[in-house]
Amino acid sequence: MTEEKLKALLDSMTLEEKAGQLVQCNAGQFIANTLEITGPDGETLPAEDLCRVMGSVLTFEDAKQAKALQDMHLAADPNKIPLLLMLDVIHGLRTTYPIPLAMGCGFDDGLVAECADMARKESAACGVHVTFNPMVDTARDARWGRILETNSEEPLLNSRMGAALVRATQGNDLSDPGNVACCVKHYAAYGAGEAGRDYNTVDVSERMLRETYLPAYKACLDAGARLIMPAFNALNGVPCVANKRLMNDILRKEWGFEGVVISDYNAVGELVSHGAAADLKDASRLAMEAGCDIDMVMNAYYLHLPELVREGTVSEEMVDAAVMRVLRLKNELGLFENPYHGADEEAEKKIYLCPEHREIARRAAEETAVLLKNEGILPFRKDVKRIALIGPFAEETRLNGFWSRPGAEKYTVTLPEGIRALLPEAELRTEKGCGAEIGDTDDSGIAAAVRAAAEAEVVILALGEPENDSGEGRSRAELTLPGRQTELAKAVIAANPNTAVLLFNGRPLVLTELAETAPALLEMWYPGTEAGNAAARLLWGDANPCGKLSAGLARSVGQYPMPYNRMSTGRPKPEPDNQPFPFTSCYLDMPNLPLYSFGYGLSYTTFAYEKLTLSRKTLGRGETLEVTVRVRNTGDRAGKETVQLYTRDPVGSVVRPVQELKDYQKILLAPGEAKDVVFRLREEQLRFYDMDGKQVCESGEIRVSAGWADHLLLTESFTLQV
What we know:
single chain; Rossmann fold; alpha/beta; TIM Barrel; Immunoglobulin-like; eight-stranded parallel sheet; 20 helices; globular; six-stranded mixed sheet; 3 domains
């Protein structure tokens, strides 16, 4: 449809019909389904009215429902404007791949794109027009349950992976029925909630906002994302959905975003709870004036926008601009010609959980697992005859993580299934040992677990946190293993030290006590559909762990927030880190550094960083220098290594971080093989925001290092001359 026809359509609509285009409803209000909603339904309105005018729907189940909803609406809508159908497809639709936090541990933009492409195909067949993905909130506090939805605590990693997901999901032409539009979330700084509590207030400086929290959203919009979602939280005193500075000034004027802004679930209505609005009518005004186009589920716009326009409080031009953005998106998706887009029941049967998609999911689970500790235990020998699989996750099917689809556990390969498929001749005994629920004190199964361990050649301890203990609204004040899992681990390891611990969780846990006793720790996160197959291949060496931590693991919850790129201080703690130094910035009762730092991860082989060289010793404005890092595989098996490049600006007009990730590359090395990894470091990458909020670059020494956070193995310096 041409722009002229869209404008004519807009001009023909009543105020109520325009307001309807800016309303999103729950599909469950019209069609029964099993999808979880994350808040209350909107203000009660007759279903016939909503069905006639509503502009979009979320939480539907399949292609059949998608078509039924579209048919129901088009039959009632006098303007015949098709619905937008939206769904949270966060880490796969039917074929589930690892949670985003795990995907960050892959340090592999290509792997993210491959998984997103798989999800795109399944989503399009389901009838999805828009996915609420990627979520690129930088998160520095593991108490926040939604840390599992982001890739990292690192802005660069979030930026690159978010952009890769957008490109793979949207393709080159949104009118292609196989492509799906992306909605970036949650703008902005949602991951910085006070005390790690979900939905909580955020107060950050302009510098921190610009350097830490905004880059990933901007990268996704630059990659072409068509929608963005304001966050639930208040930012510096103003709820994001009503934050004119955030949405009108930065998003629209500074960044030039012309796409659709959609509120989070009931966020417009929650302006009243925030105390920012007197009532729902006032909330509608504030959100519309701030540039929020679509009100998710509250129906506030439908109830109050026409009245606000008629009384002159909100201009009709403002409403028209929002409606046109929605109509343009529908037009770009080709919905006026094909309202079903890619919805196809036969395609669903063909591609859901197909062998090709399962293979991608398995490979992703293998590449994102992080080997935290290994005292020669792993990989296990394949000639073992007696295996004990112990722990509350030994036979668990719910290994997919939050935002997996209802019933996903039915298709999950369990640990016993994966082990038996790999080692059909071995005897496998399973014992639960204890529960994993918060507050569970039952330890009656530990004795049987210890007997099983003592009689086995090798033991696998499957520990973690239940699937529903991390995710939206799942903040935790304590991050140790819930229940009696630590006691179980101590007893089992004492009975058989040939024990490897597998961890299934959605956030970085505090593993300090477990790490002291466990001979091997393999962090699997929530690995998805192919969990059991991936775990078995990793444990027995058919796959070599190569994941690196995308967020550090604290020694204690008291260390949070715990950014790896922390700022310098006037009284830095001297070495060694394992003892206190009074009157410096330190803890008296533990080291400053995390148990395992950002970027850390072991392999079944070893790597030596032999040399770091710079192509030049000075760098001017707009110039680039090459940094070459030589890495050698010094072990006896092939392995992948993520080479990470860090910089430090030791003197600046504002205090600078002690380390900043600037680039990364993953390489595969055969035993004994060495490679030169070349990075191109641009002057623009060294710019920062000064105390006046201006982006600057200052002359002086810059240090360049390779290694991982807090463990920089090679360092050279050059002079920046600007």
